[in-house]
Amino acid sequence: GEELGGSIGYAVRFDTVWPRQLNSICYMTTGFLLKRLHNRGLQGISHVIVDEVHERDLNNDFFLGLIKTAIAAHDGLKVILMSATIDAVKFQLYMESALGRQGSVPLMNIEGRVHPVETLYLEDAIEMLSWAPAQRKESGKDGETFLVCDNSYSQSTHQALKALGEHQIPLEIVGPIVKHALHQMSANGDPGSVLVFMPTWGMIHLVTKMMQADSELDAACIFITLHSRVPKDEQMAAFLP
Which pLDDT does position 102 carry in this prediction? Predict the structure, then answer.
């Protein structure tokens, strides 16, 4: 196949292979694209394709505001917003508001395969593991909490939720959940992997250290952290058999 650096390139933190200047495609993070727009504007750009546009963070929100302004000022610019879980009509109306009466934003739906996913919540994990926080923490006024569940859950689960603050993420439950998943995988003969998503780099680092300190998990798992702060070579270990 064609080598990188010709018609195809990419730009991510710590690693960049730029394509040729004309008639090319460059995959990049939103942060890189914002820097590109700041330095050179839309010069040389004919199409902008944004995947997973439903994901909300400062860069994405700021970029959508910029691109909305850009399509009103540049008639030739083509913008494609993509997502498997997007509220398509909401984004369609958002972009159309920049065009006014000058045009409309077409909407395309591509049917695909959806894998069955079972959604479990914190109270489900607590119930399944018979888990309780190590130390009770009063939350809210007079010890009240907004974390509640219905009467189908045991009293111990109700008490565990009451002991957690509304904005508290009980990191100590991650290890037991991973152990439970590993036991289920072993029983089913599943050689797969477990993905643990955390909202910040600090939490990723802390949870990794907590699980590595557990002798059972440390013996059973290879821990790979995926984040822009982690060197590419270390992250590529996730694709090894």
Answer: 65
* DSSP characters over the chain: -PPTTSSEEEEETTEEE---SSS-EEEE-HHHHHHHHHHHTTTT--EEEESSTT---HHHHHHHHHHHHHHHH-TT-EEEE--SS--HHHHHHHHHHHHGGG-------------------HHHHHHHHT---SS----SGGG--S----TTS-HHHHHHHHTS-TT---GGGHHHHHHHHHHHHHHHT---------SSHHHHHHHHHHHHTSHHHHHH------STTS-HHHHGGGG--
- Please give the average per-residue pLDDT across 120-125, as a whole number: 93
Overall size of the chain counted in residues: 241
Residues 6 or more apart in contact with residue 85 via CB below 8 angstroms: 54
Give residue-wise pLDDT tens across range 199-216: 889 999 999 999 999 999
Residues 76-109 have pLDDT tens digits of 899 999 988 888 889 999 888 888 776 788 999 8
Whole-model pTM? Answer: 0.66
